[in-house]
TrEMBL record:
Residues making up the signal peptide according to the UniProt record: 1-21
Full protein name: Esterase
Family annotation (Pfam families): MGH1-like_GH
Organism: Massilia violaceinigra
Domain Mannosylglycerate hydrolase MGH1-like glycoside hydrolase: 255-543
UniProt lineage: Bacteria, Pseudomonadati, Pseudomonadota, Betaproteobacteria, Burkholderiales
InterPro entries listed in its UniProt record: 6-hairpin_glycosidase_sf (IPR008928), 6hp_glycosidase-like_sf (IPR012341), Ig-like_fold (IPR013783), Ig_E-set (IPR014756), MGH1-like_GH (IPR054491)
Gene Ontology biological-process entries: carbohydrate metabolic process
Keywords from the named record: Signal
Chain spans, region Disordered: 181-201
Amino acid sequence: MFKTTHLLAAVLFSASAASIADSGTLAAPMYLRGGFNGWGIDHPLAYKGKGVYEAEILVSPGYHGFKVGSKDWSAEWVIDPTASVTVAAGASYKMQPRPGPEDYLFVKKTSTWRFSIDASDPAAPLLRVAQTGTPPASTADPHQGHAVISPSEYRIIDGATATVRFSTPDVHATLRSYTQSTTMPLRDPGPQSATYREAAGQPTVRSGSLAFDALFALALDEMKQNAVAQIKDGNYNGASAIDCDCFETGEKWHYVWTRDLSYAADLGLAMLDPERVRNSLDFKLSGYRPGITRAPQVAGSADGMQIIQDTGSGGSWPVSTDRVAWVLGAEAALNNLPPAQRAPFVERALKALVNTLENDRLAAFDAASGLYMGEQSFLDWRDQSYAAWIVGDLASLASSKALSTNVLHYKALTLAASLAHDSGDHARSARYGRWATALKRSINERLWLEDAGMYSSLSAPHFDGAPMHKFDWLGQALAIVTGVADGERARRILASYPHGPMGAPVIYPQQQGTPVYHNRAIWPFVTAYGLKAASLRANVSVADAAYGTLMRGAALNLSNMENLEWISGQPLLLDEQQPALIGPVINSKRQLWSVGGYLGMVIGNVFGISVTSSGIDVRPFITAKLRRETFGAASVITLNNLTLRGKRMNVRIALPAASKEDGYYPVKNIAIGGVPAAASLTWQQLPDNATIDIALGPLQEGDQQIRRVDAAPYAEGPDVFGPREPGIAKGTEAATLRIDANGNGAGTVYNIYRDGKLAAASVAAGAWSDRAAPAAACYAVEAQFSASGNRSHHSVPHCTGTVIEIPLIGAALAQTPLKDWGKPGERLRFGAVRVAQAGEYGLQVRYHNRANQINLGISGGVKWLVLKDAAGRIAAQGVVQLPHARIDKTGTPPVMSTPLRTRLKPGRYSLEMSDFYNMSYLQSNSTFSAAGGAEGPSNKFDVYGARLLRLK
């Protein structure tokens, strides 16, 4: 998860020296905000006299981005508005009271730092930083006096090890207290130990392993900490708290985010607190603001009740379209809510799903490929998992098709079809059923890469569209658990996805020159989905890797962390030679989806309990390695006091003798109160206070195929990294391409794509001519390491077809560019369009959207474009996206929207643009602090004209 509301370029408004009064004192409070405090407001600048303000903060090792900003980011100060600066202790820096990139502080050892700002000159505050001390190490033994102490050794990095100890005062207590300590340096300053207790009314585990029992209690304790009565975010409600009996996202994230909540609920939280999950899901639904007149093209009910896409790339939806992850949490909540609470939520959920699905079909569905467009789910920090050039062309990000997002749309369609059927709306159920069937077929036809044995994570953008040899673990796992991947494909995915020594990274191959976050990282919640997939298909090796990742991470860190570096498994890899690559760049304790993933691992995978719409399934997946290394001498493991839909149960598994061989133990038989029972039980078949006894059968080999990779943690070698994406040099004419290697050296070859199909493989950098060049085509180039086969993203497409420029007309032409056009209800006519040659064309608007930064906001342009022939017949129509665009040293250079593709005959055409909607039209965003928020919806941008590009 990359929370763009706070992270590395969290800039929302233009700042002004008006935040500093003429006297040298601040007219409004300012705060020290950065990666070291979650970009929050818990470190205000305190006035020390004579215009000087200070904040002291205990900072852990790392390369920390920071800014000085007001509570709502309406004012901020940076050193250089055009480039980041790494500050040095003792030096002074003149700050600019306006937006810009974050500055950085590099810290080698946990220590206290004082940030002093002399604001006596309102126009040029002076920043000075100084290290003021280091915290004393504790010498107390947190386990002193405890009856049982269980130590474990873990390898961390460069041959070093860390020791984790678990202890309890009374191992026989009904509800135990645990103390856990670690010698590994923690991500954030704090004690190297934690104490937590099992709680009445919550389940407990007794497994013969104190560590296993304790880590389950830790996850439950962190779930309780994340269960709050109020949430808050600096960009909403004036940064004031909002009443909500909800789940916040983690120690550093105090808000409810659609995807984080939904994945966490699906993985485990909905079983244990379905009412709070429902409340949180409800919070992520919204209708239109009062006074919004829905454009005629917009689908759904008049109130517009739909799922919220959170702030993000290019101004949110539909650049990002993974709001449909909501269905995972909704289905889990519906399965776990008692009937009286389920019925009203079904009605609300179905309405929101219908409105969401119908409008996603208009705004994000590409009929030509049969796939939905939009950013990868959760991998929402463009620099981490996309081509470097994409940040300057977010319309290209918007038009790419991602595996994870398409699988989520498939899941949303199947749930909507099911709920509609149960509600008696058989026509709608059939409609969504057909859409789901067709989407599953398109995913398997368009994104499956037979040579890799996996799905492509994403296609290249418009004018290319090829599935790229880029892979992500969440998308692969979701394809398996939702049934998009059939049995053979599921088997191949599990055998083919690369695993490092500490587990599966979230993307592969890794990207050069990019710090650890999504790149070079393990995310426990993604690992938990990989475990679900492996258990479903009995891949023992992948399941063992996942069990190890989840237990090791929680043990060493005293918490279920947001993410970990993938080779060392550490919460921070300190690279002193390349500080810009240090990471993970931010990392939170008790991250909600990590907590949900751990709880789901224990309840859903080890003990095998999952909740369905009609009851429970009992299918534990206990491997030989888990049995011998974790449960040791135990003959029985027990999950006590699990309550589902008001029915309390205990689950008891009799373990076979430990084996030195690898494999898994299938279920031999199940009994309740001594009476044989099936693996699937209805609620009527399940008595209250039942004990479910499970006997496991003889060891089975299962599938033990897994792909192992390894690398030095500080190296960017070709074994696990991809090449940098190449370019097609400027000045290239027609179909004679000049390939720019972009720094890739020997051992790199290049693949050339024409209109998304491979035209030439393994060519050298330099000139290449297409002997079969058609009259119009679009080319892209991909780099490939010869030894490993790892590939780059594709280059910017180079199109050879004729371009027809379309100007504005009338008063708009006189004002080119037409500034801030696009208020709700406005229409814009373009000049006459004359097409001389028949063919397939791409129609785009030339624009610039400066409403917000490229990684922030809710104000991406979303409009309806109509092209009509001379007789007034519609030749093309649909949604075009005009996302936020970068402002560079030249100002606001125009960029192109997403295209409408259409086949045209020679003749004269007219073009008109009118309103659609974006997330700023929703009531939930009426208190947002930036464009599209408190001052009203924002769907505006500067218009320069339009163009037709001949494609074929």
